[in-house]
Design a protein that fits this description.
- With about 650 residues, this protein is mainly α.
- The chain has four domains: about 1-155; about 190-335; about 410-480; about 495-655, Orthogonal Bundle (Lysozyme), CATH 1.10.530.
- The strands form two sheets. It has a two-stranded parallel sheet with strand order 1-2. It has a two-stranded antiparallel sheet with strand order 3-4.
- Helix 20 runs antiparallel to helix 21, helix 23 (about 355-370) packs antiparallel against helix 24 (about 370-380) and helix 34 (about 540-550) crosses helix 35.
- The chain starts with a strand and ends with a strand.
């Protein structure tokens, strides 16, 4: 059942009244807008509606923060309706949401509000309104809107299967719109029972066990759902040993057995591989067996097991997730089996195979087989002066990576445009008020709509306001006019030059690492407690301070620029010396801990591999991306600071295994 509500039926104070209250006389102890918006956000987060209303009435109607307050107030209504009707589809009233979106057009809260409305319209098949509103979305869609787009494409008879596969292969709880998409398409025959099985298994493999059971429960009114007992599924995946030992395992579906084996493969993939051959041959459907072999291959690939590729070969590309497809290529790279690399990259889904990484490696595989013309075509597609694989492709073409031609200087009018841009000013005000998350997204929304000249002006404006991370974000988006000095900022240069010379580490490398770590946000703090420019962990700071004789170190000093640089560069030098003076290993150790590269070297044994392969084989997504970005950044900073740079492939070097 669909419910369309007028806001005034569900909140005690309509928006029009709230707006009028803004013109009432301010109380004697009037606070600044910045202080008010922090308190208003806190009241909103706490669900304290009366407090929210009182504080919102004190905020001037023309305040730069008004879009946030008005749309948060509207969302209070949403929450109230959802509590009243938790099992029904609520759709906002067009006559009330459109004026709000129009009034606060091109603000981040309006953008997210329109996203949510688009999902409601898609779930209730209001396609005329959906098509009209979809064109007003300015920022890239989130997963929910992507699924709404797929629903619309299906309605138009234009659904693209590989895009649907990305939804099926997702290994966490999908947004509501995506779950509705799968249910609708299943009922229409566009999604098979095997697809739904695969989605459940992806969640099981990722230890999203409760979410896997929830998904099955939500499909209990479908033919697929009626064949599955969520109770039995729960038993199989929460206690796989007991389930596999039971004499049962007879059911209308092999989902329980596959799920139990998937859970066991996480801890012992070799045993499951044997069991599949010796005990469960013929007991699994072809699709389940192929998925399970891909899962076993993935688990083996993560620990650089040389049988991983063999396991993958017993599967088929159409049942593999993107992650599994990528690890099949990595498993071939581990063995330096170039024929397998070529085959695996060619078999990837269209949206995956055109990634620069796989285009580069496909080129390498073609070159190994003597197909140099085809290899060059792949490298030309991948070549770029700014990305890790773009640089490597550029070098394979025989070219030297050089700094791009500097664009013409920005005019006074262009700089003034950025200085007066309403969205940028709102982003700055949010940052100044301490609402960094809101400021981050507000800035991103604005630059997503800019051309190259405007991006350069916005980046310059951000740098001058010490929003270094946003300056880089804007400069990174240019397509033809590139300013290397904006993409690769060098703040705190005097401190950096002096400290890197004192400690004895490459200044370009340290800059490249900081650009990846904190984007030069001195107060940056990660979810695990790393702080400052070089994101030093508290325990590491204490250890390094003692090691270098910094007797006056106090934990509160960790974000101070000089202290953070001293601790960070000293620690980087230690890790560098510990790992054969390899910047690849040291960068990996700085991010993942110094013991990790040592473990990966032991897995190589008496072999040696090129640094690019080693970087691609790193089993942690974060660390893999980190090392690639740091090494690519280092090359750019070397060009900027020294007007010359060692080729990236040479920097990556050769990594030697150990016993």
């Amino acid at each position: 059942m669909t419910i369309s509500h007028h806001i005034s039926r569900w909140i005690s104070l309509p928006l029009c009244a709230l707006g009028a209250m803004a013109f009432q006389p301010a109380i004697a102890s009037k606070q600044s807008d910045a202080e008010l918006i922090k308190q208003i956000k806190s009241a909103y987060a706490d669900g304290a509606y009366d407090k929210f209303n009182r504080l919102a009435s004190e905020l001037p109607q023309k305040s730069v923060f008004r879009p946030y307050v008005d749309i948060w107030q509207f969302r209070f209504f949403q929450k109230g309706v959802e509590k009243q009707f938790p099992d029904r589809e609520v759709v906002w009233n067009k006559s009330e949401i459109l004026p709000l979106l129009t009034r606060h057009d091109n603000s981040w809260p309006a953008e997210t509000l329109r996203r949510d409305w688009l999902e409601q319209l898609a779930r209730t098949a209001q396609w005329t309104d959906f098509a009209e509103q979809r064109q007003h979305l300015r920022y890239r869609p989130d997963q929910g809107v992507e699924c709404a787009d797929l629903m619309y494409a299906a309605e138009q008879g234009q659904l693209v299967r590989y895009k649907l596969d990305a939804v099926v292969s997702f290994d966490k709880r999908l947004p509501k719109t995506c779950r509705v998409l799968l249910k609708n398409l299943y009922k229409l025959g566009g999604v098979s029972a095997q697809d739904l099985d695969r989605h459940v298994l992806q969640m099981v493999a990722a230890n999203q066990l409760t979410n896997a059971v929830k998904f099955v429960d939500e499909f209990e009114d479908t033919a697929w759902g009626k064949t599955i007992s969520s109770t039995e599924l729960r038993e199989a995946i929460f206690n796989p040993d007991k389930y596999l030992k039971s004499s049962g395992q007879k059911a209308d579906t092999d989902l329980y057995l596959t799920g139990a084996l998937a859970r066991k493969a996480v801890e012992d993939f070799e045993r499951v591989a044997r069991q599949m051959t010796e005990n469960y041959q013929g007991k699994l459907s072809p699709s389940s067996e192929q998925w399970l072999w891909a899962h076993v291959g993935y688990r083996a690939g993560l620990v650089w097991d040389r049988n991983a590729l063999t396991y993958f070969k017993r599967s088929k590309p159409e049942v593999m997730s993107q992650e599994q497809q990528e690890w099949k290529v990595r498993s071939a790279l581990l063995l330096e089996d170039w024929n397998a690399v070529l085959q695996a990259t060619n078999e990837m889904s269209p949206n995956v195979k055109e990634d620069r990484a796989w285009t580069y490696w496909r080129g390498r595989a073609l070159a190994q087989s003597g197909k140099l013309v085809e290899a060059r075509q792949e490298w030309i597609k991948a070549s770029s002066p700014f990305s890790f694989y773009g640089k490597l492709a550029h070098e394979e073409l025989g070219d030297t990576v050089t700094a791009p031609k500097r664009p013409e200087l920005l005019s006074a009018a262009e700089l003034d445009w950025a200085k007066k841009h309403p969205g940028l000013l709102r982003a700055l005000a949010l940052y100044d008020a301490g609402l960094r998350t809101e400021g981050f997204w507000e800035f991103n929304l604005q630059v997503a709509q800019m051309n190259d000249r405007q991006l350069l002006a916005a980046a310059t404006w951000a740098e001058r306001n010490q929003l270094y991370d946003r300056a880089i974000a804007a400069a990174d988006r240019t397509e033809t006019e590139h300013d290397l000095a904006l993409r690769y900022l060098t703040p705190f240069r005097d401190n950096m030059r002096a400290k890197t010379r004192e400690i004895g580490v490459d200044e370009s490398w340290v800059y490249g690492l900081i650009r990846q770590e904190s984007r030069f946000v001195t107060i940056a703090r990660s979810g695990v407690g790393a702080s400052g420019l070089m994101q030093v962990m508290p325990a590491t700071a204490k250890y390094v301070a003692k090691k270098i004789g910094m007797s006056d170190f106090k934990p509160a000093d960790i974000t101070e620029i000089e202290t953070n640089l001293t601790l960070g560069t000293s620690y980087l030098k230690m890790v560098f010396e510990q790992h054969d003076q390899s910047p690849v290993l040291a960068s990996a150790g700085y991010n993942a801990g110094p013991s990790r590269p040592a473990l990966w070297k032991r897995r190589l044994g008496d072999r040696k591999i090129e640094g690019a392969i080693f970087a691609e084989l790193i089993p942690f997504d974060e660390t893999r991306g980190y090392v690639k970005n740091v090494m690519s950044n280092t090359m750019a900073y070397s060009l900027l600071l020294n007007n010359a740079s060692t080729p990236l492939k040479q920097r990556l070097g050769i990594i030697y295994g150990s016993k």
